[in-house]
Amino acid sequence: MKRQYLFSLFLIFLFAACGKTNHEQIFDSAKLPRVSSAQVEQLIEDFILAEDGAIIEIPAGFYELETQLILDNKKNVTIKGAGMEQTVLSFRELKSGGEGIKIVGENIILQDFSVEDAPGDGIKAQHTDGLTFRRINVTWTHGDKSKNGTYAIYPVQCKNIMIDECIASHSRDAGIYVGQSENIIVKNSLAFGNVAGIEIENCDNAEVFDNVARDNAGGILVFNLPGLPKSDGRGTKIYRNKIIENNHKNFATPMGEGPNGNTVTMIPPGSGIVLLAAKEVEIFENELIRNKTFGIGIASYQITGFPSEAPNWSPYSKNISIHGNTYDRKRAGIPDLSRELGQLVSIYNAHGKGKTQDIIYDGFWENTQGKSIEDNPMNLCIREDNLSELRFSRFYLMEGEDKIDSFDDPSPFTNCRVEINTDVSMIAAR
């Protein structure tokens, strides 16, 4: 408990003390001593020869690697450094492979080291049951952020995931990205300088709490995208997070202009929490501070303009509960104009052009669920204590760009209650 408290103080110190530069780092890894080529070869060999139950210890120092580190189909393996500011694995000169570290296995623990400058993802884990990231820092130190990797911490198609006391920065997609997975905790972590700070995509049974997401284009995202092996995810709780000044430029690769271009390109700078085709999400007790476009945005997939039909998948956000959050938009600036969603908010919101919104809803609904948006067919429940003081905008977009309207009345979404059930007790005790 004491260590967790100290780490929380560390996160607050970072927020208060670090300047908002494009290339902010939590420490200067260049000051670390370079390890010998023999030590680098030993580390590569440790990964290759690891058996079930192995403990791979990485002593302090700066490791310059030309090949990725792969742990393939192993069980009960721990990979640990001397601390995220003491053990740094640099993949800037990588000549083979894309990810820095690639994991497939069962009951894998990674802790106490940093990964820098992987050309693709920092750490990717796939098809792993039982996965812990603890005190892991992944970042990019390039001057040109468009050359940064896609995801920093990237578990996909995994089960029983714990991400605790980690730091992810400068990804050109998401810093902490959990995709097509189930049973997930993301806590006590810091995400900054990314396009998306923390993203839960097509996942079941996730809790995201006690994190700091700051200076990203979007703070925390919950998406369900079509055409993936795992379709609609459901059951996510987002609570007790500090979501602060996520006004960073969106530097994601645009759709159609590279292999990493994807839906995150639509996120306007200044987005606090974004739900896209999300199901069964509860958002509560978060601090949403100076996110210049909106605090919380609820949207269907139609707003992307991409095809919105796929098997076993729905494009609508539904069964959403929002309560007990605090909002502060003072000195946030005007909403973003670089993305169409930002333009929609800035020009067509219900409170006046150029005004930051606390909560927005795109207003798309499934006709089979109700005849009118006034019936709250998607079961969006907003129960904020000071709702009358907040800027709420519901948009009317059903007839396209030629007839856009907005409404400031949240009452259709207040007389309801949604119970979101998650159970992460099986991993909470780690």
UniProtKB/TrEMBL annotation:
Protein name: Parallel beta-helix repeat-containing protein
Organism field: Algoriphagus hitonicola
Domain of life the protein comes from: Bacteria
Pfam family, one: Beta_helix
Database matches in InterPro entries: Beta_helix (IPR039448), Para_beta_helix_rpt-2 (IPR022441), PbH1 (IPR006626), Pectin_lyas_fold (IPR012334), Pectin_lyase_fold/virulence (IPR011050), SO_2930-like_dom (IPR022442)
Domain Right handed beta helix: from-to ranges: 100-226
Gene3D superfamilies (UniProt xref): Single-stranded right-handed beta-helix, Pectin lyase-like
Signal sequence segment: none
